[in-house]
Amino acid sequence: MITKNLNVILILFFQMMSLTAFSQKKAELNSLLDKNNEFVFPQTASKISKALNTKTVYYEDANDEKYAKWLPKSGLEVYCSIGNDDLVNEIFFDVADDKVSIIEGLPYNLALNKTTLQESKTKFKKYNAEHEKLGEDTSFSGGSKLIFKNGKYYTTLIFNNKDLLKFIGITTELVPAGAG
Predict the structure, then answer these.
(1) 17-26, 40-49, 133-142, 153-162: which range is least confident on average?
(2) Cα(100)–Cα(107) distance, integer angstroms
(3) CA dihedral in degrees (35, 165, 180, 55; nearest 10)?
(4) Beta strands 66-70 and 165-171: pairing type?
(5) Which of 48, 130, 133, 175 has the most CB atoms lying inside 10 A of its own CB?
(6) What angle do CA 40, 41, 43 make, to 5 degrees?
């Protein structure tokens, strides 16, 4: 009897712990999204910085291409290339591998670490979203990629091997295969 009670207590304890292990955070992108929760382009780095309430970190790659990134406290990682006049015409949303936070409030009402592949297939069926299984040589081995075009922008969603959304990319060109 004591063992049964102890088991019940332990089960309840671990269930409560698992509920609090995933903290939910909001990306606070409202001022950058339209009424359909689509990201509005072009943007400026300063507007993105203000919306995320964090400073912009500028950097360059080996080809002297300019980039910016934002690392708000939520665990969300936002980055983009920077065009002329500090304009942003593509953007990427990611969450650090060591973060288990659910990040909500993203374009299309998506949530990193929460939205599933099946939910996304259903949601983006109207855009003829293409599904692709990711190979063993990718960052999300055994995961999936869902790509669709809305207007002049391509959206790439990458899911881990548990079919949870880990990455959102919104670009003007389709990212070549093997880049995911």
Answers:
(1) 17-26
(2) 20
(3) 60
(4) unpaired
(5) 48
(6) 100
Amino acid at 23: S
**Which residues does residue 58 pair with via DSSP β-bridges, in sequence order?**
68
Pairing of strands 130-133, 76-81: unpaired
Residue 140 · residue 159 · CB < 8 Å: yes
CA 10 centroid distance within chain = 34
Q: What is the pLDDT of residue 58?
A: 94
User: Is residue 73 a contact partner of residue 22, using CB atoms and an 8 Å limit?
Assistant: no
Six-digit token string for 68: 């910016």
What is the average pLDDT across 102-108?
94
- In the numeric block, which tokens belong to residue 134? 């990711």
| Structure confidence at residue 9 (pLDDT) | 47
Determine if the pTM surpasses 0.90: no
Record the tokens describing residue 51, joined without a space: 């919306």
SS3 per-residue string spanning the chain: CHHHHHHHHHHHHHHHHHHHHCCEEECCCHHHECCCCCECCCEEHHHHHHHHCCCCEEEECCCCCEEEEECCCCCEEEEEECCHHHEECCEEEEECCCCCCEEECCHHHCCECCCEHHHHHHHCHHHCCEEEECCCCCCCCCCEEEEEEECCEEEEEEECCCCEEEEEEEECCCCCCCCC
